[in-house]
Amino acid sequence: MVKTGNEAIAWIHSRLPFGSRPGLDRVNALLDLVDHPEDKVPTIHIAGTNGKGSTVSYLREMLQEAGITVGTYTSPYIESFNERIAIDGRHISDEDLVKLVNKYQPLVAQLDATNEVKGITEFETLTAMALDYFLEKEVDVAIIEVGLGGLLDSTNVVKPLLCGITTIGMDHTEILGNTLEEIARQKAGIIKPGIPVVTGNIPTNAMNVIRQTATENKAALYQYETDYQVVYKRPADEWGEVFDFFNDRGKLTNLKTSLIGRHQPENAGVAIQLFECYCRIKGIPVAEKAIRNGLQKTHWPARMERLSKEPLILLDGAHNPHAMRRLVETMKKEFKDYNISILFSALSTKNVDEMLALLLEIPNARIYVTTFDYPKAIELDDKFENAADKRVTIVSLWQFGLGEVLEKMTDEDLLLVTGSLYFVSDVRALLLEMGGEAHAD
Question: Is the pLDDT of residue 314 over 60?
């Protein structure tokens, strides 16, 4: 029996050594023991290489604005473990987490005693717990974010009302495949017979795979630039982006996101189309006010988050080349008047050389490559300095590198912290401790 939130989290983490193992046998065996909550909770299932988190956040805020109680299951966490399971943006309490762990500990032990399904992973256990929690709390709908891929991800046990696929890019190739088509096949694995699916800005070859899967499943497909359109207009006056949205219902003009980046209107577009589809399914009116207010209220830590205005400090967990490309576009277009210092670290499983090459495309940037306390964090070696130009510096302790940059900053300077979300989360915590101004907008 566990008694505290910390003990509950420690037990959940004790399943980490079993790693990430694609397949649904273990999670289904666990769900068998709790009478299949996934069959009883209305869900919206979201997959994609990048953009899942902000799409989930936009959609949650819009649904809440429409008076709907919304559960969210997301990963990884930025501020606290409890944020991975939330209702209406309120993280699961330690008390509820303790109750769940005490319920699931003996069930997992029971499965560990069998040869067929022993070794259930942390993510599989947490997925079952989240679905159980949402059922108990009687949410109107739960938005479930895929952990990895789609087809064999443990969240693919849900019976959704709607699916969304945000983007397709090269990531987790060792598990999902070495081409966009192979990766798209895994992401498209969340498509269910007769269940509508909304897709974001996806390359043609990957989109062909998704379209074929939707056709085979007789699933209505709402495709970016075909069934709905997003027209980027300009950066918002204070912070965020302004865009127009069109679909068969008509046009919404001068919508404003609270998150910055040219790709944010695309993520918001997926969320708006999902919101409208949900309203149609439920027979409730599509309130324009819910869309506008939801977009502006969305806050997503460590995704182009402005932690401080003076000096300007931005955090963005661009943890793979696909995300980094979008970040670099944003920095070149919207922050070209600043002297930019970039504190960067990543996991060794990612294409770090490509990410660094992309950062070097920012003409007014100096890059500090560092490492951090995490099992798969990059090791620092000469290749980072030798392979790049003189704008790259190796920093063995990121805390010292951060302190050095902050000490020299003026109003003309900008600090960008980017790379692994685990790294950005660590830096964020220290900056807030030092008096950073979260939610500065």
Answer: yes
